[in-house]
Design brief:
By secondary structure, the chain is α+β, with helices and mostly antiparallel strands. 56% of the residues lie in helices and 20% in strands. A hairpin with a 2-residue loop joins strand 6 and strand 7 (186-200). It is a multi-pass membrane protein.
Length: 421
């Protein structure tokens, strides 16, 4: 008979726990602590989802802007240059996953205009072939990339670099390359006067250091050489590029080495990913604090409900049933906080750009200056996998927080309580 009653009480444990959570007859101080616990869970979950979405947005912006100029893969000579690059290009384009190939020569140089000096990277390209491997032609905001095919030494440079040198289309700059020209008077650094015929802008760091010249001019200025430094490749899938490049490396001679974008730019994106993990752990501590508040709420609730616990035990409730009641009591508070926080965080993540714009207009300030941050608004990308992970982690922390107070409630001896009633 006793076992049957205990089993019945266990079945009703969730309903009793819910009644304890939302009853209006609770102690006022306990109610305040319970409300603070729920609000802490709401703020923790909402802030975690919002910040993760913003981190995703920054990652996508970074990936889209930088990889718009970075080819999917590279084939370079281990020593010297690639002489017969046309034949190699035909061999590479025969691969089913390779869409386009473009030659390049690159070197670090110094740009000068009057007293303004800036270090940068000068890359010689074929404008027509370059259009197949990157979005450079679409990124030119003044002038044109095709001007590099014209006779003479023309240059297309990043918008930030042009701004730092105070030049625009039609102006001239001096470029000094790490090569020596030997004359009867001695050895001098090689320099050349270039005409600015285009300015590109992708809204990322390449705007501040990258410049392009034609392939023929580059062979003279960065050479002399007959070949090229290597070939840039575009594949049919950016994220499958590492597999494609590994496949190509098995078909090419050992004198050539193969790289993909994850090797040349991977450290940057790994840093962004690690930053997202660290920020997640820091904000998860807010959720952990809210979960520990649930411990305080349940301990006070156990002290307040000692008489009810004793009555239930005398009616046949087992220790497991008492534990289930207070676990349900704590989880009810946590689930409400997690649900409201997830909804609020999702709404904030979807509308963070509009909210940022409203704040800027309201206080007449510019939070994100494009000249400094390369963006004009706060990017956000809500991933439901992040929402599920946050909700699951918050639920687990809340569940762990309920175990000790529930265990304490189950250990209350009914005789000791009822003796003084």
């Amino acid at each position: 008979m006793s076992a049957s009653r205990g089993h019945t009480v266990s079945n009703y444990a969730p309903f009793i726990g819910l009644r304890y959570s939302f009853s209006r007859k609770r102690n006022r101080f306990t109610s305040v602590i319970a409300m603070v616990s729920m609000l802490g869970m709401v703020l923790g979950v909402a802030s975690l989802i919002t910040v993760l979405s913003v981190m995703n947005g920054f990652g996508e912006e970074l990936r889209g802007r930088i990889l718009s100029l970075v080819p999917h893969g590279f084939v370079e000579a281990r020593q010297g240059s690639v002489a017969d690059w046309e034949s190699l290009a035909l061999q590479l384009t025969a691969h089913p996953s390779v869409l386009a190939v473009s030659p390049y020569i690159t070197d670090k140089v110094i740009f000068a205009n009057g007293r303004s000096l800036r270090g940068g990277v000068l890359t010689a390209i074929d404008p027509e072939l370059e259009a197949g491997v990157s979005r450079m032609p679409q990124s030119v905001v003044r002038g044109s990339l095709e001007s590099l095919s014209q006779r003479g030494f023309n240059v297309v440079m990043g918008a930030s670099l042009a701004r730092m040198l105070a030049v625009t289309v039609g102006d001239h700059i001096e470029v000094t390359v790490p090569r020596l020209t030997v004359t009867p008077l001695g050895a001098f650094p090689r320099s050349k006067r270039l005409t600015v015929t285009g300015i590109f802008e992708v809204g990322a760091q390449p705007d501040a250091y990258q410049a392009y010249i034609g392939l023929g001019a580059g062979q003279k200025l960065l050479g002399p050489r007959q070949g090229v430094d290597g070939l840039q490749l575009k594949t049919d899938d950016l994220y499958a590029a590492p597999d494609t490049m590994r496949s190509l490396s098995r078909e090419l001679p050992p004198a050539l080495q193969v790289k993909d974008w994850s090797q040349t730019q991977g450290t940057l994106f790994q840093a962004v990913k690690m930053e997202k993990v660290m920020v997640s752990l820091l904000l998860l501590s807010v959720v952990a604090v809210a979960a520990f508040n649930i411990v305080s709420t349940l301990i006070m609730s156990v002290a307040e409900k000692r008489r009810d616990i004793a009555v239930l035990r005398t009616m046949g409730a087992r220790a497991g049933g008492i534990m289930a009641i207070f676990v349900a009591h704590g989880l009810a508070l946590a689930i409400v906080g997690i649900s409201v926080g997830a909804l609020l965080g999702s709404l904030l993540a979807y509308n963070i750009s509009s909210i940022t714009l409203f704040v800027e207009n309201l206080f007449s300030v510019k939070i994100f200056d494009p000249a400094v941050y390369f963006i004009s608004e706060l990017p956000s990308s809500l991933l439901w996998s992040d929402v599920v992970a946050v909700v699951f982690a918050s639920f687990v922390l809340s569940l762990l927080a309920t175990l000790y107070p529930a265990w304490r409630a189950a250990r209350i001896a009914p005789a000791e309580v009822l003796r003084y009633e």
